[in-house]
Amino acid sequence: MWVEGYSGRAREEGDMFALVLVLLAAAVIVVAFGAGVWWLRRSRSAVVRPDGTQEITILVKGKYHPQTFRARRDIPLRINFVRDEDEDCSRWVIFPDFGVERTLPAYRTTTVELTPDREGDFLFTCRMGMYHGSFIVVPDRWRSVAPRCRRNR
Q1: Is the pLDDT reported for residue 8 higher than 80?
Q2: Rounded to whole angstroms, how far apart are CA atoms 121 and 136?
């Protein structure tokens, strides 16, 4: 009788251990999924090139990828739109705050050049507004720090 009671307790402990493992595995899956979504949705930044411009490539396929990016103020910006489709809606890209509108030929790369001269969030979209993205213009921290460094010398 004592052996049966012991095996019953062992079975309960085994069930509890299995439950803890299942809950731990579920928590790991939820955290990994959340991290993956964050990674895909995070804002990217335009890369500053040695020639003093900044550049980013945007894939146009069902939507803009990435939909949001960061750029620095007062540095010329090159946005390379790689249109990997022939949907009518993605044929144009418009930057209303900068007065820029370009045709994006299907299965080609089109470069849009502009210089963000003020900070803020700026929209770009197709003519119908079904494709939309934005970019955030931030201060160029290196240019804003340089005058202070020179003054302190």
Answers
A1: no
A2: 5
Q: What is the pLDDT of residue 21?
A: 80
Q: Which residue is associated with the tokens 């335009």?
A: 46
Give the model's pLDDT for residue 141.
72
Tell me which residue of 102, 132, 127 sits closest to 114, measured CA to CA.
102
pLDDT at position 153: 47
State the average pLDDT over residues 103-119. 96
59's torsion region: left (phi>0), alpha (psi -120 to 50) or beta? beta
Q: 144 pLDDT exceeds 50?
A: no
- 3-state class percentages of the chain: helix first, strand second, coil last, to nearest 5: 40, 35, 25
Q: Are 55 and 76 in contact (CB under 8 A)?
A: no
pTM over 0.85: no
Task: For tokens 């991290």, name the residue.
Answer: 35
Q: What is the 3-state secondary structure (H, E, C) of 22-69?
A: HHHHHHHHHHHHHHHHHHHHCCEECEECCCCCEEEEEEECCCEECCEE
Segments making up each domain of the chain, as ranges: 1-42, 45-145
Strands 44-45, 68-72: pairing is: parallel
The CB-side HSE value for 112 (13 A sphere, CA atoms) comes to 22
Top CATH class of 45-145 equals mainly beta
